[in-house]
Amino acid sequence: MNASILFQTTGLLVLSNVFMTFAWYAHLRNLSHRGWWTAALASWGIALFEYLLQVPANRIGYTAFSLPQLKILQEVITLSVFVPFSILYMNQTVRLDYLWAALCMMGAVYFIFRTPAGA
């Protein structure tokens, strides 16, 4: 596995997920007093930056990883971004379920990456 491709893909996906998470959920805190269409327009504006990072991340990653490997990588990153966001930004309480979800994702990573891409 090419470490450069892994780092580029992972870095871009982490940044993409930060934008995605804010686009999907920040309006619940910041725009709850406004109409849903206002929240939708704001979210679409934020999501543009998500796609500007996610598309190149997947194109770079697909040169070394299979599609299922890219998907599992994306899901692990999503949880890694979402948990701190929900605790620090949305003021949600920490739950033991976060640990169980993380363990399940570790299992998914193991099974999807145990064989080389395309094998």
Explain how this protein is built.
The structure is a single chain. The protein has 119 residues and is mainly alpha-helical. Helices cover 80% and strands 0% of the residues. It is built from four helices and no strands. It is flat.
Sequence of secondary-structure elements: HHHH
Give the oligomeric state: single chain
Rg over CA atoms: 16 Å
- The tally of strands reads 0
Largest sheet: none
- Estimated helix fraction: over 70%
What keyword list fits this structure?
119 residues; mainly alpha; 80% helix; 0% strand; flat
What is the structure about, briefly put?
This protein has 119 residues and is mainly α. It has helices spanning 3-30, 36-61, 67-89, 96-113.
Which helices and strands, and how do they pair?
Blueprint (H helix, E strand, L loop, with lengths): L2 H28 L5 H26 L5 H23 L6 H18 L6
Helix pairs in contact: 1-2, 1-3, 3-4
